[in-house]
Amino acid sequence: MAAAHPFVTRSIPAEARALPVTKETSQPARRVQPVVPPRASNIAAQVQGALPPAPNPVAPEAVAASASAIPMPPAQDPSARSNTTTNAPSAHFTFPGSMRLHYRVTLQVRGGTSAGEGELVWRHDGESYEARLEFTAPLLPARAQRSTGRITSDGLEPLRFSDKARTEAATHFERDAGKVSFSSNKPDVPLLAGAQDRLSVLLQLGAMIAGQPQRFPPATIIAIQTAGTRDAEPWLFAVEQQELLQLPGGTFNSLKLTRNPRKEFDQKLEVWLAPGMDYVPVRLRLTQPNGDSVNYEWSSTDKG
């Protein structure tokens, strides 16, 4: 399969504000130049859908950083060695144009395997965005997640995140009040700079690396406060080596990032971003503590 043509980028002013996108439009990639450092979480699924609840309340302020001083051993939790991360300079973000990504999904549950389909819709007009992830499989309820917000000098700025299976739960980013609130009546969490939700974080990671790939060599640690529908906490992503992937939609190089478990009931999240496709996620795998897993593999893309 031929690699996607690169999108043209341009600057987006920090003061840009708009309502969430309601109509799908095809736009060129956007590059923003933040005036402050971003603070740099899951696409995954349970056996009945796409994303599990976040495990714990928010920890101290998260940062995006390079671990060049002391490289992180692959099997070690990045949080165990605080001297591997430092404050990072301002980052640049390059977002792809509006698109619809299709995935083949494989579930491994209690030793059995089942298949399904996934779809990630990404729309933006350079000032506001909408992202939606849907998952369907035979004999399982459909699940949909949706993130809406703004594109700013710090990348994505979510305003609302929802997760719907049989019922819908929502998370609100109350920026004036400096907090994240939940429809589940869980306690509010302080809102940190650069905070994302479990869907927008994947697009934020891709846009951050696409903007300045040279700043994210292997062993770099990227930390982002990530909100689910029950709480929020910083997630640490370790940049690994490039891998050649054989996917339903073709074969191409990818950059792997891994979020390793930090506590007893954490999930492991692996994300593969494709440089030849503007660093969109072409593979995602979530592994539960009991060994159950969900694997998304890219099959095709609809532009616009």
Kindly state the number of beta strands: 18
Report the average pLDDT across residues: 78
Largest sheet: 16 strands, mixed
The string of secondary-structure elements, in order, is EEEEEEEEEEEEHEEEEEE
Query: What is the percentage of strand-forming residues?
Result: over 45%
Question: What structural class do the secondary elements suggest?
Answer: mainly beta
Task: Give the % helix.
Answer: under 10%
In total, the number of domains comes to 1
Number of helices, counting only DSSP H or I runs of 4 residues or more: 1
Global outline: globular
Which parts are unreliable, with pLDDT below 50 for 5 consecutive residues or more?
1-89
> What distance lies between the first and last C-alpha atoms, to the nearest angstrom?
19 Å
Radius of gyration computed on alpha carbons: 18 Å
Note down, in words, how this protein is organized:
With 304 residues, the chain is mainly beta. The chain has one domain (30-303). It has one helix and 18 strands. It has one helix at 200-211, and strands at 30-32, 64-65, 93-95, 99-109, 112-124, 128-137, 140-152, 155-164, 168-174, 179-182, 189-190, 196-197, 221-227, 232-247, 250-259, 268-274, 280-287, 293-303. It has a 16-stranded mixed sheet that branches. A two-stranded antiparallel ribbon has the order 1-3. A hairpin with a 3-residue loop joins strand 5 and strand 6 (128-137). It is globular, with a radius of gyration of 18 Å. The chain starts with 29 loop residues before the first strand and ends with a strand. Residues 1-89 have low confidence and may be disordered.
